[in-house]
Amino acid sequence: MSTSYLRTTPTPRQDRPGDLCVRLEALRAQLAEGKPDDVAQRLLSKVCEAVERLHTEHTGMAEELLGVYEQLGIIFEVTGRLSTVQTESGVVDLFVDSLRRSAQGRDVLAVEPGALSGEVAGSPQHYTNNWFGALLRQARDRRSVVVEAPPEGSAAGPVSEALIGPVYAGDSFVCAIALTRGPDAKPFRASDMLLLESLTRFCGDVICTHRLVREVREMSIAMVRSLVNAVDQKDQYTSGHSLRVGYFAILLGKALGLDEAALQMLQWSALLHDVGKIGIRDDVLKKPGRLTGKEFDHVKEHPVRSYEVVQGVPQLARAVDGVLHHHEHYDGSGYPAGLAGQDIPLQARIIQIADVFDALTSNRAYRAAYDWRKALEIMKREAGRTVDPEMQEVFSRLMHNALDGTPDGWKRMVERADRFTQVAEEEASGSAGE
Ligand SMILES: [Fe+2]
C-alpha cells in the first residue's frame, strides 16, 4: 500500500496566526498614533502574546501530527506486507525495512542475540565492549526502549545518538532494533521512542503468532504422520509409503512450478491419499496371492474412503482431488471415475507418478524392489497409458539430474523421503541439512 499521501505536508491556512499577529501589531501602532489609553494598549499586547503562543503551539502540533502520519504510514506498510512474510527473520527484516524508509538520515539495524553477546563469529566488536554494546544490553535487560548520546570521548564514530528497542516474543529475546543518527540528523523525539516501542512490541507479537502457527502446523503434520504410518503399517510392504509419496510428489510439484499454497495442499493430499485403506479388510489388504474380482473391487474402494476422511476437514478442501483421483489412468481405464488425460486433476496426476514410482522401488511379496533407473524405464512404457506422459518426462529428468553420478544418492534420497514431513519442516525453518 502506498503511504505517500500520509507524508504530504498539510495545506497551510490563509489566516495563519503569525499573519494575524502582524496585523494586530500594525493596529496597535495605529492606535498608538491615535494615543489610545493604557488599558487598550495592554489589552492589545496581551492579544499579541496570546496569538504568538497559539502560533507556536500550532507549529508544534503540526510537527507532531506529521510525526503521527509518518508512524501510521509505517504501521500501514508493515501490516500490508505481513502476509507475504513466512519466517521470523523475514518479520524482523520487514520492520527494519519499513523504519528505514522513513529514517530521515538515520541508520536502522537489527542486532541478533548472538552478535550482542559476541557469540557470532565476526560480529562487530563494538557490540560487545563499548557504549553502543552496553546500550544494546541495557535495552535487552530492561525490556524497554532506551535513547542515549555517547559519552564524551567514547569511540562512537559518527554516531551522535542511539535509540534502541528490544524485540521480545513472550519471554524470548529475538533481537534489538537500533536507530542511530549522525550530527546532522534531527535529534530523536518522544514520538520516535513511542513509535519504536509500538513497533518492537508489534514485531514481537507477530513473531509469537508465527511460532504458534508453526507449532500448530507441526502438531497437525505429526498427527497426520502418525495416522498414515498406522495405515501404512497395516501391510509390511507399504510401511513408509505415504511419506515417500509425499516427498516425491513435492519434488515433482516444485519441478512443475507449483506455488507455495499449491505445494502445501499437494503435500497433504499425497500424505493422505491412501488413508481410506484403514477401512479395507486386513485379509484382503495383506493377502499374499492374487485377489479375486470381488476382493479387488473392495480394494478399489479406498480412494473414495480416503476422500470421505479428508473432505470432513474444511482446511483440506483443496486436497481432495488428489486423494479421490490418484488411481485414475491417463487413458481413462482407472478408477473411481474413469477420468482421462487432462480431465484428471493435476494434483492427482502428480500423486499418481509418485505413487507408482514408490511402488516400483519398494519390495513386494511377489518381487524385489526395482532399481530407480529400472522403475523409470517401466514408467516410461506406462506413459500415456497409466501416467501423464509429460509429467513422467519431467519426473524422469529430475531424478536423473539428482541421482546420476552420485553413488549413494538414491540411499540418501530414500532416507530423506522416509522422514519427509520432518525434512519439509526443517526446510521451511531454513535448517535443512542439504
Ligand atoms: Fe492408493
Summed up, what is this model?
The protein has helices at 17-33, 38-81, 88-101, 113-116, 126-129, 131-142, 190-232, 241-255, 260-272, 282-285, 293-299, 302-310, 320-325, 346-360, 372-382, 389-403, 409-418, 420-428; strands at 106-111, 146-148, 161-169, 172-181.
Word description of this protein:
The protein is of the alpha+beta class and 434 residues long. It folds into three domains: 1-84; 85-212, Beta-Lactamase (2-Layer Sandwich), CATH 3.30.450.40; 233-428, Hypothetical protein af1432 (Orthogonal Bundle). The chain has helices at residues 17-33, 38-81, 88-101, 113-116, 126-129, 131-142, 190-232, 241-255, 260-272, 282-285, 293-299, 302-310, 320-325, 346-360, 372-382, 389-403, 409-418, 420-428; strands at residues 106-111, 146-148, 161-169, 172-181. The chain has a four-stranded antiparallel sheet, sandwiched between helices. A hairpin with a 2-residue loop joins strand 3 and strand 4. Helix 2 runs antiparallel to helix 3, helix 8 runs antiparallel to helix 9 and helix 14 crosses helix 15 (372-382). The longest helix has 44 residues, at 38-81. The chain is elongated. It starts with 16 loop residues before the first helix and ends in a 6-residue tail after the last helix. The structure holds fe (ii) ion.
